[in-house]
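lol ok so funny story. i was supposed to be doing the assay writeup but got distracted and ended up predicting the structure for this chain instead. priorities right. anyway since i did it might as well share w the group, maybe its usefull for someone
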Amino acid sequence: MNQILTFKVGPESFCLDVHCVTGIEQAPKITSVPLSEKHLLGMMNLRGQIIPVIDLRILFNQDNQQKTKEQCYIFIHTAKGQIACLVDAVYDVVDCSNIKFDQDNNLATTLQKEGYIENVFKLNDDIIFIINIEKIYSSVSSIAADSIKIAS
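and the output, tada:
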């Protein structure tokens, strides 16, 4: 991971490997999935492929759930398939070759314990959480996963 995409979810800053990002979009058409987890907003059709759409604010227990003009969806490629994540704002692509990660895990959080966070580092005055996209993808219920298989 040489470059990361930084973004906000609630008051916190997060990032992921820029090579996993396949696109960013404002408002895709989303179809809800009955009996799914609260953080699964639904499914969408992206160029003929059905993908789950996750609200990271709900998954990360963020209180601020008001819509803003900066909100958008990050489309991410994982080993298991595509996923779209709702975030509050996308900031920048940052070179992370000189970043020092928190090796002592002094900044451990509930998100790290749940496996949603791979690591933590400081960038300027911000604490940035590196998300584990594979774990986030697997947070989607088996009902949604079955929907993907049926549609394929």
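The CA atoms of residues 116 and 145 lie 19 Å apart. The chain has four helices and ten strands.
back to the writeup now i swear
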